[in-house]
Design goal:
With 46 residues, the protein is largely without helices or strands. It has a domain at 1-26. Helix content is 11%, strand content 0%. The mean pLDDT is 77.
């Protein structure tokens, strides 16, 4: 999917070529970007 989205030859909607660099062995550290905490409607975000 990423290859298609960044390839100007197969996807004419891509404005420029994107060459993704994968580093699967690299740790994410303390980040957990896709798991935000859920709060009830009666609690404020600080």
């Amino acid at each position: 999917w990423y290859h298609y989205m960044g390839d100007t030859k197969t996807n004419y909607l891509v404005p420029f070529q994107i060459d993704y660099i994968w580093q699967p062995d690299e740790a994410l550290g303390l980040l957990d970007p896709l798991n935000p905490p859920a709060k009830p409607c009666d609690q404020a975000f600080e």
